[in-house]
Amino acid sequence: MPGEESERSRLPFEPNKKRQKPAKTTAKTTPKTAPKTNSQPIVKSQESSKQLQKPQTFTKEEMAIPEVVSQRMIRRVAAFCGIPTALGIITLVASYLLITFADIQLPPIAVLLVNMGLFGLGVLGITYGVLSASWDEERPGTLLGLGELGINWGRMTEVWRETRNKNV
Questions:
Q1: Do 145 and 133 touch, CB atoms closer than 8 A?
Q2: What Rg value do the Cα atoms of the chain yield, rounded?
Q3: pLDDT value of position 22
Q4: Quick one: pLDDT at residue 8?
Q5: pLDDT higher than threshold 60 for residue 147
Q6: At 19, phi and psi to the nearest 5?
Q7: What is the spatial distance between Cα 5 and Cα 57, in angstroms, rounded to a whole number?
Q8: How far apart are CA 82 and CA 15, in angstroms?
Q9: Which long-range contacts link 114-119 to residues 24+ away (Cβ below 8 Å)?
Q10: Cα separation of 145 and 27, whole Å?
Q11: Residue 71's closest CA among 121, 134, 29, 149?
């Protein structure tokens, strides 16, 4: 597995060292129930193995997305989600005003489909806003973020494959 880690390009804000899972203990022996001569070496070997396998803890700052990247994601989500959602709300109001004051009969299914399409685009805009933002702190990315989308989608699918292979 370490070879796969080096093949995968790391995220710009990903911690440098992998976190190790804590070792599972199967049975605990107490000094009262176990013989004293056999329990002492076992306890010492368990303690030394626990020290070697001690999980590495990262600080909250090391695990968090950098502020520059998160602000970039928020701006993109606001644009790519906010605009279609606002258009969906405006379409509802406009169709109501057209039906009420201009006596224009709009088919309800047309209003429904237009609104579902715009609200659906708003939901997709959340994902696109996050994935199209540059995850590199020094690189702001492009206006539409098509190049960043490809890079970030590749990173995401690669991590999915790695976790699926580890769980098998």
A1: yes
A2: 27
A3: 55
A4: 59
A5: yes
A6: -80, 135
A7: 19
A8: 32
A9: 114/88, 115/88, 115/91, 118/84, 118/85, 118/87, 118/88, 118/91, 119/84, 119/85, 119/88
A10: 53
A11: 134
